[in-house]
Specification:
The chain has nine helices and seven strands, in the order ααααβαβαββαβααββ. With about 220 residues, the chain is of the alpha/beta class. It has a single domain (about 1-225), classed as Vaccinia Virus protein VP39 (Rossmann fold). Strand 2 (about 110-115), helix 6 and strand 3 form a beta-alpha-beta unit.
Length: about 220
């Protein structure tokens, strides 16, 4: 790979201006970073593809990792826009292999990260990869976000992707609304279904503080107090 996204192991998560490279270039770069980090994403996904799948869940099994995993360059730019301070907490709802945790560990030390992922094999592989590095406060957990008994931990920032079903996304947004009654928070919606749900059915999140829209995600904030 050449150009602005030539993989550099001394600078694996470059901060590049939006529009400086194509999305396929970002995806190819992410695969090179996964390999450097020791994440066996392609191997794990190939194993998952031949196993029975739970019904009623959108787990992106059988889908190339390029499609459902967010590139590192996008995560780096997004986190730069959010500028989370030391002592804040970021919760990733549908964390996959925990890519965001690696970026935070390098560029935002002092920020706590908790990633929830339904597929246990992805969680274990992400945990194995994270164990090779010293990133305090970076954690991956297996969880069913759609379960009635599940409630995300209180946090300052939440990332929500097009996981599960539309009903599951609605359940998660309802959970976040309850948390927002007690504290201000920021929600990053990535994917058509998540953003559509927020815009159409959650005015508490989309119509109080003007959101910021970008190519693949939108940033929503609640008002303090």
């Amino acid at each position: 790979m050449s150009g602005p996204l030539a993989f550099d192991p001394t600078h694996p998560f470059p901060l590049l201006p939006e529009g400086s490279h194509s999305y396929p270039e970002a995806q190819a770069h992410a695969e090179a970073v996964d390999a450097w980090l020791g994440l066996r994403t392609a191997e794990i996904e190939a194993e998952l593809a031949v196993r029975p799948r739970p019904e009623g869940q959108q787990l992106w099994i059988g889908t190339p990792t390029r499609v459902f995993l967010t590139p590192y360059t996008e995560l780096r730019l997004l986190l730069d826009r959010l500028a989370p301070g030391a002592g804040t907490t970021i919760v990733d709802l549908g964390a996959g292999y925990g890519r965001m945790g690696f970026v935070l560990g390098v560029h935002h030390p002092g920020v706590r990260f908790l990633g929830y992922e339904f597929v246990e094999e992805r969680v274990k592989e992400g945990q194995r990869g994270l164990a090779r590095w010293t990133y305090p406060g970076i954690e991956l957990r297996q969880a069913d976000l759609a379960a009635a008994s599940f409630l995300p931990e209180p946090a300052d920032f939440y990332f929500i992707y097009d996981y599960g079903t539309r009903e599951a996304i609605e359940k998660t947004l309802g959970d976040l609304r309850e948390i927002a009654r007690l504290r201000p928070l920021t929600v990053i919606g990535r994917g058509r279904a998540s953003r559509d749900a927020i815009e159409r059915r959650h005015p508490w999140l989309s119509q109080v503080v003007p959101p910021r829209h970008f190519g693949h995600y939108s940033i929503y904030r609640t008002r303090a107090g």
